[in-house]
Amino acid sequence: MTGKWGRLSFKKKLLLYSLFLCIVPLPILGTLSYYTAVANVEEEVNRSQQIILGQIEQQLTGFMKRLEMISVHIATDPNVLEDLRQGPLLDPLDSITTLNVSARQYRAVSDIRFKMSLLYTGFKMVYSEEYGQIQAKRFPLANLLDLSIPIYPGSVIVPPKTYANQKDMILLRSIPVQSSPAEQIGTLMLEVNTNSLFDVLRSTGTNENEGRQVLVIDDLGRIIVSSNYAEVGTMLTPGMGLYDFWMTRKAAYSHYNSDQIEYKLNSIKSAFNDWTYMTITPTKELRQRANHIKQFTWTMTGILTGVWLIFSIIGTQRFSFPFKRMYEKLPELQENTLLKMLRGEPADKDFVLQNNFLQTCFWFYIIVIERESPKASVEADVPDQGLSDRELAALLQVLVKKRHPCLFAIEGSGKIVFVVGIADPDEDGDQAMFALGTLLLEEVKRQSGDPAALVIGRGFRHYRQLGEKFREAEDLIGYKFILGTEKVITAQMTESFSVKQSNRFFVKWHKMIVTSIIEGEVSQAAEHFEMMIAQLSAHVPNPELILGSLNYLMGEIDTRLQEMGHDLSELIDDERYDQLSSLPSIEHAKSWFCTVFFPALERHLEQFQQQGKKRLTRELIEYMELHYDQDLSLQLLSDRFAVSSSHISRLIKNETGYSFVEYLIQLRISKAKEWLAHTDMALKEISERLRYTNSQNFSRIFKQVTGMPPGKYRNQSRD
Predict the structure, then answer these.
(1) Rounded to whole angstroms, how far apart are CA atoms 224 and 158?
(2) pLDDT (tens digit, 9 = 90+) per residue, 365-393?
(3) Alpha-carbon separation of residue 531 from 63, 88, 96, 509, 596 (angstroms)
(4) What is the pLDDT of residues 311-350, one digit of tens each?
(5) Which residues pair with 135 in a beta bridge?
(6) How far from 234 is each of 31, 199, 224, 264, CA to CA, in Å?
(7) With a threshold of 0.85, does the pTM exceed it?
């Protein structure tokens, strides 16, 4: 995937970036807007339904409270009680007249339409406004009179259509109020017209929405009130979605499906009589507003997507042109792109198109030129320091382009890399590159005066191999110690076993010497150096190669010392350093390293370590003096200064003559003496501030150090 993306042109990348950054967010924002709108609408609907249910519950609760109050007034009416105690009179008209007067009296002061009946418990007779005075067994609702009425609240509500011949809601109350069955002398029955309940629903405006259904369900699961009259008096049964929702009551709202239609349920529960008030609304009607928002959102998303698509195509055409011109006019940008390809990154399509020879040539070669002691950095600012790498590379590029198409890049200080193409399939590429390398070496010597190594990698067929072949060419640089500098080194020259073995020999000893110096073992590095010289003298016949290797070793040591924060000029002066390049023999070079360089390096590192110890000791003492009133420990200092506890202990002992704990005690007791002499601070406060567990422990240590208790010291210091 990365390779395919890298091969796309800049123009196509710009178009894809534009489409991704500007078009992709539109559907995402549209989707978020839609779901946010749906959530808001649903929340608004839930809130609205809860308000409606609250109104219905408030109205019905008030209705039932008034009905209960009427029943209590009737049940405690002296005339009614007297009539029930006396029983049916011989002349029924007298009882009927008395009870009718009582019923009309209470009906006149109530907004509830009801019919009253009284059961004479001991006489099995019933008085009814509708039937007059009749035997209980002939009363149409006689089966209701056998219902058990709890002592508290002393009444029972029977929903409409619960029993045969019962079309209205009925309230039964024992007389006297809250009496036990043994004490009961009668039962009051109030029949409430069902239309009264529907009037309550109409007063809350619930019938205005024909899609919504309202249910009131008692604590037994029977429907007391419903927008659909046919459902009144029916029981909720297990398996029904409404039953499950009514039973669990885990949430104020939910969903359920019936006849493949999804409904939204909202409910509240009355604290007055444990009734459940519920609304059932088809979700289709609730989501109409959300669907309008959805249609609008996706319509706008589609329009904006189309508009931006047009702008992206037109903008890509316009904006890619100035970038293309800038790309052509900035050689450094092309050089950076070539460096990325040399390091193994995917090829840039526009770069390849601008440098057409990368697609048309039959063979490619990588030439690496490494100046031994470049007089200038990659970007020299001082003219009299000689040619910079870039200036030299530009001169060499003119020479190469007269023969072959090429590109160059500066890969670090002193290293110039050329990618050269061979356009003629019949040309001998290896021979042509060797001849070109010879010319380049001569030009480097003539232009800069610096010795240089030049290596030519193996030929390859495709520019996508640049990274791999560049690494191979870099590996050839090390062979300059065996084959010599100021020569053209090709891959074919390094094929022999002896050359490879010698190169590995140089690398091995160089690594051992440099590692010993990094670890601070200068004497060990000197031993490795003497062993290397002995073996080199025995196996490498050319003394010049050995001397060249020593110069390279010195360069490596210089680089490592700089990374460690040291400057080679601090070890040896320029005059002595220049002696290395002019030594006539290996023995002289060995003597210079063993008597001049390694001793100077060892003295420098020892001095550096001593300075580091003094600096660290000073920082430790200062830290303890500033933080004596905190919980100090060797481990805390070890973690803070990244030094072992034993090393810290030795440094403090050498500097103060005390161990860590002893010196900390000295600091704290010194501060305690200052506070005792110049303040009225209590011993308890002093011991707490100095991190002692209690004042007794502090007094004991103070006396051990000073020879007297703190109180005595305070008195003496103030006399």
Answers:
(1) 9
(2) 999 988 865 433 333 343 444 678 888 88
(3) 112, 138, 138, 9, 18
(4) 666 766 665 555 555 544 556 777 888 888 888 888 777 7
(5) 125
(6) 44, 20, 8, 21
(7) no
